[in-house]
Write a structure and sequence with these properties.
71% of the residues lie in helices and 0% in strands. The protein has helices at residues 14-35, 41-46, 53-64, 67-80, 86-89, 93-109, 115-122, 125-158, 162-211, 213-225, 248-266, 268-275, 280-294, 302-311, 327-335, 340-376, 382-403, 413-437, 443-465, 474-499, 515-518, 535-550.
């Protein structure tokens, strides 16, 4: 089991503890305030489809800003350097724009409560059940990562035992989701976004001051790791060496297409935030609004990873007491004064709870709406499914506690997370793209493509773990696994689809891409037609800005 070094222990005073207590009180207050709006399963699972775009947009990015982002991307910054910006600029922004401009009209207008339910309408119950099970398993595994990361951080920073840390975090997430449903989770995610940013900005600024500013980072990292460590594309030609162990093709196709589009367009923890928006216009703008803060998150996550590498040059190396996951806690222990320290600890707890809450809320929706209601207890009163949703939330937290320790064998939790994405999200994306853009796609093709597309990367990764496949980087393995998942799904689905009978075209209305459906603006509300709210402007603006953000790392 990987734990953080005891040398990271913090000296918290009464002011730090007070900040932490106030945060927990506010979180529970939001939950009980949200409870008044929960009267049905639609309220509990999708906030009654009533939230404005700015709220769902911030919740969208905050749901992703969990343990994997804070600890994992800082760990990536220390381990891989500027190559980490690929996860933001090519590994997030294009897919978020594609979700908002192309896919959301089909998700939202079909009135589905979850991503797997779309496959039920497009294909059959077999594809639906398989995708629901995959989503449920992936959700609790990812929720477990957030719990585990929180536990090891609190043990190192505050001296709390790991079981106590897990229980405290789990209980708070359980309370505010069970009481207030998705509305509570989303409004808390908005709060958590600002708390996380407020915690990370001082950490980054003080870190820069310690190492001599941006020029100090460049000079010191170049001296120790080489200039290539600060170049996103340097050394990515075929046959060239780089810390990531990948080339431009695996980065572009494996990360930029397979993993990125697989995660951002089908991961229900994200899509659920868009589905809770008040109308189609707000739903489309949700991921587009989120794209803008997303591309600047590296300034307060990846940059601290580089600063930690300068301050502790042997971080992550054999024999070091600090692994890569220690990057952020290391800076907190060495840089922050009391008061700011309490805010930083609160920000870490907020990030872990945001990540866990996003996955637990998606788990309870998928289990209730896609497994329990259609296959175990159909045709029950709505109140029955509302009760099941609350009960399964508690069960999901308990399972998340159990899966937390699966992450214990990974010194960089982002490696583990990307492994999960290549297993579960990539084949789902391949199946969804065929379902959405090809009328000839059939239910049998969807089932077998999804099943074998999931098993293929698991088999490849297993061969890597036992030494049959030899590769230099775990992230390089994940990118190859993602490409294998994508190709396998397509190679299986296409011939089966051509050999089986598709649904009649009349049954595919609203479920297969047409330009009319894709450009449907839905029911507009006052102000939705303002020029600065136009999805196309937001989407292409985000793409252009992402390209410009690559420039400093490409010179």
């Amino acid at each position: 089991m990987h734990t953080l070094a005891d040398g990271l222990r913090l000296s918290m005073n009464w002011m730090d503890s007070l900040i932490l207590v106030i945060y927990f009180v506010v979180v529970l207050g939001i939950a009980f305030a949200a409870k008044r709006s929960v009267h049905s399963t639609l309220d509990f699972f999708l906030s009654g489809r009533s939230l404005p775009a700015w709220v769902t947009g911030l919740a969208f990015v905050s749901a992703n800003l969990g343990a994997t982002e804070i600890l994992g991307m800082a760990a990536n910054g220390a381990q891989y350097g500027a190559y980490t910006v690929h996860w933001y600029l090519i590994g997030a922004i294009p897919a978020m724009v594609f979700l908002g401009l192309v896919m959301m009209p089909f998700y939202y207008n079909s009135k589905v409560r979850s991503v797997p339910e779309f496959l039920l309408r497009r294909f059959s119950s077999s594809s639906h059940l398989l995708s629901a099970v995959i989503f449920a398993v992936a959700s609790v595994l990812i929720a477990g990562v957030n719990l585990y990361a929180l536990a090891i951080v609190l043990q190192a920073l505050l001296g709390w035992p790991i079981p106590l840390s897990i229980v405290i975090a789990g209980v708070f997430v359980l309370i505010y989701i069970t009481v207030g449903g998705l509305t509570s989770a989303i409004y808390n995610e908005v709060l958590q976004f600002f708390v996380i940013v407020a915690a990370l900005v001082p950490l980054t600024v003080l870190g820069l001051i310690r190492v001599g500013g941006v020029s100090g980072v460049i000079d010191k990292v170049t001296a120790s790791e080489g200039a290539q460590f600060l170049s996103a594309w340097g050394g990515t030609g075929f046959g060239q060496d780089n810390p990531l162990g990948a080339n431009w093709l695996t980065i572009s196709l494996g990360l930029g297409f397979a993993i990125s589009f697989g995660y951002w367009t089908t991961n229900f923890a994200e899509v659920q935030r868009s589905l809770s928006a008040k109308n189609l216009s707000a739903a489309r703008r949700t991921p587009l609004i989120a794209a803008f803060p997303k591309m600047f998150i590296p300034l307060v996550v990846v940059l601290p990873g580089l600063i930690a590498l300068i301050m502790q040059p042997n971080i992550g190396q054999p024999g070091s007491q600090y692994d890569y996951n220690s990057a952020i806690p290391l800076l907190m222990a060495q840089l922050l004064p009391n008061g700011v320290l309490g805010l930083a600890v609160t920000g870490l707890m907020a990030s872990f709870m945001a990540g866990m809450a996003a996955n637990v809320s998606s788990f309870n929706t998928v289990f209730t709406a896609d497994i329990w209601e259609p296959y175990i207890k159909p045709n029950m009163p709505d109140s029955h499914y509302l009760t099941v949703g609350r009960v399964i939330t508690a069960i999901g937290v308990v399972i998340g506690i159990g899966t937390a320790f699966i992450a214990a064998s990974f010194s960089n939790i982002m490696n583990y997370m990307q492994t999960l994405f290549s297993f579960f999200n990539v084949p789902l994306f391949a199946t969804f793209i065929l379902a959405l853009f090809w009328k000839r796609m059939t239910a049998k093709a969807g089932f077998w493509g999804l099943l074998l597309g999931t098993l293929a990367p698991i088999a490849f990764y297993s061969m890597y773990r036992v030494g049959i496949v030899d590769m230099d980087s775990a992230q390089g393995v994940n990118m190859i696994a993602a490409i294998i998942a994508l190709v396998t799904d397509l190679a299986v689905s296409v011939p089966i689809a051509l050999a089986t009978t598709p649904k009649p075209e009349a049954e595919l209305a609203g479920l297969v891409y047409t330009r009319a459906d894709a450009t449907d603006s839905g029911e507009m509300q006052r102000g939705d037609d303002a020029w600065y709210r136009k999805p196309a402007l937001l989407g292409w603006g985000a793409i252009v800005l992402a390209v410009l953000c690559y420039v400093p790392f490409s010179l």
